[in-house]
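Whiteboard transcription, Tuesday session. T.W. wrote the structure tokens on the left side:
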């Protein structure tokens, strides 16, 4: 028998109105995220951390956005290969059952750091679940490192990740673009073996007014139609700073589509 938390979660996943304990109601849009998994921390340079997006996002209407295969070339494409597939109601129900088994609806924000004593410089997998009470976060440092985790929530989280991996590759998919793109700009260093320098891609945009993140980097959210500008750009592509006269001021641009549930620009690089 399903618990009340799971019943509410299923209703939210279908994008309908769910009754709360006080007799009131809560409606989440089918476009809202209900489950999202991302990686925080780890030993990596700031530009890699800033470019990193969610691994999985599940929306209320059953769309699963996920990281697709990465082309094994150097330098790799600048834009990440985000794909989107439509899950069935049974698929969503299976995921929400695991969310409930984790006890996630009763968690506000917890982290299992059990593996920290055995492994350094790993990242923390974080799952966020949204329901009528808001966001619920649970993180696991070095998820999968411990064969028999002590916490039940951690064991079920690993199972949920495995199920998502299976669902991501099971059905028909197509590229995910979204409505908005996160753009982060910082100082670039020219690769002597791969010199690709292009004109500033955002005419009329003054980056001095953009939000400062991670000290020397600046961020702004733009409409997703800017993504097409970077279709053939790579991770080594640099851009002439605006008003630099095309001389030596070169910038690195990190750009990707925003997922539902993400903040526009990050407060930190986690």
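and on the right, the sequence the group agreed on:
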């Amino acid at each position: 028998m399903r618990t009340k938390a799971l019943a509410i979660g299923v209703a939210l996943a279908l994008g309908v109105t769910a009754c709360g304990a006080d007799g009131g109601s809560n409606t989440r849009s089918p476009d809202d995220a209900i489950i999202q998994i991302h990686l925080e921390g780890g030993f990596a340079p700031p530009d890699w951390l800033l470019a990193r997006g969610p691994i999985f996002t599940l929306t209320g209407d059953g769309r699963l956005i996920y990281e697709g295969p990465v082309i094994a070339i150097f330098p790799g494409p600048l834009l990440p290969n985000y794909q989107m597939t439509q899950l069935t109601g049974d698929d969503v129900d299976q995921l929400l059952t695991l969310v409930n088994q984790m006890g996630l609806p009763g968690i506000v924000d917890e982290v299992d750091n059990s593996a920290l004593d055995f492994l350094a410089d790993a990242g923390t997998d974080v799952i966020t679940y949204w329901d009528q009470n808001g966001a619920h976060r649970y993180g696991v440092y070095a998820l999968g490192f411990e064969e028999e985790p002590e916490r039940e929530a951690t064991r079920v989280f690993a199972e949920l990740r495995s199920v998502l991996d299976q669902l991501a590759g099971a059905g028909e998919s197509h590229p995910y673009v979204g409505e908005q793109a996160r753009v982060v700009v910082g100082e670039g260093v020219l690769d002597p073996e791969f010199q690709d320098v292009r004109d500033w891609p955002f005419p009329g945009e003054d980056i001095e007014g953009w939000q400062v993140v991670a000290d020397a980097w600046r961020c702004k959210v733009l409409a997703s139609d800017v993504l097409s500008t970077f279709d053939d750009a790579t991770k080594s592509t640099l851009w002439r700073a605006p008003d630099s006269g095309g001389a030596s001021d070169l910038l690195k641009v990190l750009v990707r589509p925003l997922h539902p549930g993400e903040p526009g620009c990050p407060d930190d690089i986690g």
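Someone added at the bottom: The domain at 4-174 is CATH 3.30.1560 (Mago nashi protein).
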